[in-house]
Amino acid sequence: MATETPGRETQETLSNLLTETRRFAPPAELAAAANVTAEAYEEAERDRLAFWERAAERLTWAERWHTTLEWNAPFAKWFVGGKLNVAYNCVDRHVEAGLGDRVAYYWEGEPEGHSRTITYAELQREVAKAANALQELGVRKGDRVAIYMPMIPELPIAMLACARIGAIHSVVFGGFSVSALKNRIEDANAKLVITADGGYRRGKPNPLKPTVDEAVAECPGVERVVVVRRTGQEVNWTDKDIWWHDIVDRQPAEHEAVPHDAEDPLFILYTSGTTGKPKGILHTTGGYLTQTSWTHWAVFDLKPETDIYWCTADIGWVTGHSYIVYGPLANAATSVIYEGTPDTPHRGRFWEIVQKYKVTILYTAPTAIRTFMKWGADIPAKFDLSSLRILGSVGEPINPEAYVWYREHIGGNRCPVVDTWWQTETGAIMITPLPGITHAKPGAAMRALPGIVADVVDDKGESVPNGGGGYLVIREPWPSMLRTIWGDDKRYVDTYWSRFEGLYFPGDGAKRDEDGDIWLLGRVDDVMLVSGHNISTTEVESALVSHPKVAEAAVVGASDPVTGQAIVAFVILRGEAEESEDIAAELRAHVASTLGPIAKPRQILVVPELPKTRSGKIMRRLLRDVAENRELGDVTTLTDSSVMKLIAEKLPAAK
Ligand code: 6R9
């Protein structure tokens, strides 16, 4: 099972080495006008279900639920008996409320000059046409639709069209391979695929259709393939194919949104997990929209009339589903969507976009922040970032140094940073500071949101005291929780509910500091066991990144005859830092003085890049293979497979 920790009997808890004393209070003005005040925590504590009912009331229901939560552990039903339409809530109701002229999306293509502004009224027409087209193609409620697209407006439109008619979408990252796409189409038994000829990436048209052609050739269950023309590149054509513009453009711009059951499936999203076949995480309608929209409004202190919100994630990742599409649209927010990479055509592209649209809320990932650190602070300094008021982080633990850099060089030392912990499985943010309330500590996700009951437990599932480390768990069901793994209830129970009796185990290590605040320590599969001590990769990485010469670090435990496992660190130096002979010794000494000698890496390798998934998570598993001189495991979810070659070449030098 993925949640197994090597030798966990040896040591009661994960190590708790890092001390961080910096704190950032919320700006007074922001606190005074914040959407959520500290009372929310008390209200939710008094009556958790009543709290979520009020959050659900922010949506428009065709029929109110009769039971807030039906908990047949570990299977949850929220807002039972309620009926609503997600697309109506995300689009039509705003137009009916007179907000049709408000911009829903500023879309920015990668090639400069490719941009499009879409108001809520336009979005309503586009979604209605797409929904009519899907119905003409025979798609019915409950059918699965696979979506394999670049970051173009037709992607959220396709998702909303599915939601509108009750079809279940399964968005597959536009960078995944033929076999990854084929497996996902097959697992969900999708009857329709929506794709594009290609998208722009790193300055070039990047074809998508050939991947779909190969995958669909092996999936007889797929009846039709709808193709958006984005790049205009040559495509092969089969009997199943139909152009998006041929079928969608001629449809009526009205479509009646029938209400769906609160527990009708909304989408499946596959997460790779560490081993085995990808898990199809199933999310449903009412609870998912309740928690994504409430958290988007609360955590980013969203003022929909004035904020310009930009989440830089790919929509093919859960962050894009919940915080580019469903949460922001349900709140009638104005968002930016960007198609391309941060370095195309130049390394200031993100800051140029912030300046152009006067972005007020920016939500990005630690991997991006560390890349910007590596490129140097002089790049963002060339742009006007004064519109920003709140910064968010998601995807990995954010190292304190990266947090402080983000706050200073992007946020001008005035914007609160919210470090949001959650997962594909949780559907929405769970643990995070609130920008108008929390005195945030760099590197800490701080505290469970109102209505969420999180805890840190030891091996036996007992809460650890303040100052202790262990395993993160969630004690009570929450509205946007996954309902199951598609087609595999047993795997759902085994993966998430079997490690600790009655508790949801997300697979992350955590510690609770002396104030009771929560710090995430990375996946427990990545925890290292050195001379009988469980040491978290996150803490050693953060210690390395706190050295002025280091931009990014990945740490793994490699088997060692003396210590069981030994720490091997891969580091990327900052732009201005030179690789010197004694850099390894210097960094080893730095870790020893920051965390203690037990955490000192056996080896330090300076590398040009680190292996990452498309959502920017470091694939430590592959680094472990390198450190232990093994053949590489599955690399299909890697962004760039040439990275591993570059790293392997570095290895002998450090021995
Ligand atoms: C939203 C998303 C989930 C895993 C999760 C954890 C890590 C995400 C984090 C974080 C520390 C944060 N993670 N946010 N760790 N601090 N703020 O990333 O979903 O792709 O399913 O990944 O990501 O390890 O368990 P997903």
Q: How many DSSP helices?
A: 19
Could you say which overall geometry the principal axes of the C-alpha atoms support?
globular
Name the CATH homologous superfamily of the domain at 531-650: ANL, C-terminal domain
The major β-sheet equals:
8 strands, mixed
Give the CATH topology of the domain at 531-650: GMP Synthetase, Chain A, domain 3
Rg from Cα: 24 Å
Q: Spatial order of the strands in the main sheet?
A: 12-11-8-6-7-14-15-23
**Structural class by helix and strand composition:** alpha/beta
Q: Name every ligand kind in the structure.
A: ligand 6R9
CATH architecture of the domain at 531-650: 2-Layer Sandwich
Helix content: 25-40%
InterPro entries: Ac_CoA_lig, ACAS_N, AMP-bd_C, AMP-bd_C_sf, AMP-binding_CS, AMP-dep_synth/lig_dom, ANL_N_sf
Domain Acetyl-coenzyme A synthetase N-terminal: 38-90
Enzyme class: ligase
Domain AMP-dependent synthetase/ligase: 98-478
Describe it.
With 655 residues, the chain is of the alpha/beta class. α7 packs across α8 and α13 packs across α14. It is globular and about 70 Å long. It is 30% helix and 22% strand. The strands form eight sheets. An eight-stranded mixed β-sheet has the order 12-11-8-6-7-14-15-23, with helices on both faces. A seven-stranded mixed β-sheet has the order 5-4-17-16-18-19-20, sandwiched between helices. The chain has a four-stranded antiparallel β-sheet with strand order 21-22-24-25. The chain has a domain at 531-650: 2-Layer Sandwich (GMP Synthetase, Chain A, domain 3). The chain contains 19 helices and 30 strands. The structure holds ligand 6R9. Ligand 6R9 is lined by residues 271, 318-319, 394-397, 419-424, 445, 506-508, 520, 523, 615.
